[in-house]
Design a protein that fits this description.
The chain is of the alpha/beta class. The chain has seven helices and 17 strands. It folds into three domains: 140 residues, HUPs (Rossmann fold, 3-Layer(aba) Sandwich); 63 residues, SH3 type barrels, CATH 2.30.30.280; 85 residues, Translation factors (Elongation Factor Tu (Ef-tu), domain 3, Beta Barrel), CATH 2.40.30.
């Protein structure tokens, strides 16, 4: 097959490309230039898309003996990922930009271009397993990235390759070292790639400005403080609330809800974060076919953690989910991914965007 290997400049994509070459595929490497400010080098494990990453990707391609190109998708990334992220926070939601990047950039813009150029598949370093069109969790549970791939449609999965999903991360680093790839010991990137300093609140404040509102006690309706914008809060948040007096019971308060129109942030006790029912919109089914009725599953609401048994029911253009055990900190804007337990590894059924939880 003709395979387009997305080389981020990290160890996982490096080994994924190496495995595609070893499998006998005709491989071409491509680095996605997603940032408009690539002049700044990354700092340790923060950020990506820097000159350093592009140079590392080029060196990996050279060692593997494959052609290498850079595709500038910064405009698409800014519109479909960064602006979507900002707009979601302004609307009181908690988005996952990595999930949106996979959906809109890596397996839409890149895959569409790759297919138009005659490639058969796009290869990435995501930790997930894909066998016969069936997407499963990775072997390394601690590195599993199937959650952020649960937005992919059947036609996209038919042209995807995830070669490292059957291997634990330490073994991937060892393999990279044996191959002489300089990315072998490179730190993993963390946090949001386009906010390399990790200051999400500052990033949003710079783009949205101040939108004053009140912090209100959920039980009493008492105004406990003021804030500069709902974009500085997420459901489940405990620190940095700006509340000027302790709770009557002396226990910490948490963000329970965000109302962007009035600018009201509601806070209350930790116990009030638990939910049993989730409503979601825009479902994507990895098989290409929506379930005909209620189905038992395991759901996940965050990239790492937040799992529970559940029964999900497609309703119109959405999904209603009844949880078998309560989950905490479920926020509108998050994705909820659906899994089917299987002895060979949990199967990803699909995902949807959370609109409400109770």
């Amino acid at each position: 097959m003709r395979v387009l290997a997305a080389l981020s400049g990290g160890v996982d994509s490096s080994v994924a490309a190496a495995r595609a070459v070893a499998a006998g595929h005709e491989v071409v490497g491509v680095h996605l230039a997603l940032s408009r400010t690539r002049d700044a080098l990354r700092s340790g494990s923060r950020g990506c898309c820097s000159r350093e990453d592009a140079a590392d990707a080029a060196r990996v391609a050279d060692v593997l003996g494959i052609p290498y190109y850079v595709w500038d998708l910064s405009e698409e990334f800014a519109e479909d990922v960064v602006e979507d992220f900002v707009a979601s926070y302004a609307a009181g939601e908690t988005p996952n930009p990595c999930l949106r990047c996979n959906e809109k950039i890596k397996f839409a813009a890149v895959l569409d271009r790759a297919l138009a150029l005659g490639f058969d598949a796009v290869c990435t370093g995501h930790y997930a397993r894909l066998e016969g069109g069936v997407l499963r969790r990775a072997t390394d549970a601690g590195k599993d990235q199937s959650y952020v791939l649960a937005v992919l449609r059947a036609d996209q999965l038919a042209h995807a390759m995830f070669p490292v999903g059957d291997t634990a991360k330490p073994a991937i680093r060892e393999e990279a070292a044996r191959l002489g790839l300089r990315t072998a010991a490179k730190p993993d990137s963390h946090d949001i790639c386009f906010i390399p300093d990790g200051d999400t609140r500052g990033f949003l404040r710079e783009r949205l400005g101040e939108r004053p509102g009140e912090i209100v006690d959920a039980a009493t309706g008492e105004v406990l403080g003021a804030h500069a914008g709902v974009h500085g809060f997420t459901v489940g948040q405990r620190k940095g609330l700006g509340v000027d007096r302790p709770a009557a019971d002396g226990r910490p308060r948490y963000v329970l809800g965000i109302e962007p129109v009035s600018g009201t942030v509601t806070v209350g006790p930790e116990a009030a974060l638990s939910v049993r029912t989730v409503e979601a919109r825009r479902p994507v089914w990895c098989s290409g076919t929506a379930p005909g009725g209620p189905f038992a599953c395991t759901v996940q609401v965050r990239a790492h953690g937040g799992t529970a048994s559940a029964e999900a029911t497609p309703v119109g253009d959405g999904v209603r989910v009844e949880l078998g055990e309560p989950l905490r900190g479920v926020a509108p804007g998050q994705a909820i991914a659906f899994y089917r337990d299987d002895p060979a590894g949990a199967v990803v059924l699909g995902s949807a965007t959370i609109t409400a939880a109770a």
